Prior knowledge:
The protein is an alpha/beta fold.
Amino acid sequence: MTEIVTYHLNEGVATITLDDGKVNALSIDMLNELHEMFDRAASDEAVVVLTGREKYFSAGFDLKVFTETPERLTEMIGLGATLCEKVLAFPTPVITACTGHALAAGTFIPMCADYRIGLDGDFKYGLNEVKIGLTMPLFVQEIARQRLTPAELSRATITARSYSPSEAVGAGFLDCAVSADGFESAIAVAVEELKGLNPAAHAATKLRVRADAIVAVREAIETELAT
């Protein structure tokens, strides 16, 4: 059976790759594995590069859970929410290298990361919950609030606007959009820059700068799961 999440550690860098052979839906299995991989990276004290498969970083939560096993919906959303909280406060730098489309829950993790690189091309980024009949979860509102620009926060959440990679930079979903021939080198440059940070200072400063967001996300998760 093909692994849907793989972990490769090399010279202090943990590359975590999502590949379910399809659209990288964040299933319960994939989310459990992601939690394990991030815990492993924390133990290894490694800089994290989270990436996806060709054309897809992630299309979001596994919609089959909504229709086929709704009794597990709270479990899936809880795993996704707590993974976001984990990444938001992660002790080492986290880079997301988005290899294609990032939609709905597929944007949640990048919005919690420290540096977000997107592959430029015919790809879409966006919070499409309203389009598919879902009310935006409270914890997602708090994640989006701390990363998206004020104008695009409303457009992205309330009107479910989608963005090209270059538009996603302006909105706050990404830090840069890079052509295919420069994608790997952009990741390498970001890794070297973040490896040069003082680990203790990085971890402590992240917790200080994001303190309000972390508290808001945690409280939103508790409220969401309780209802």
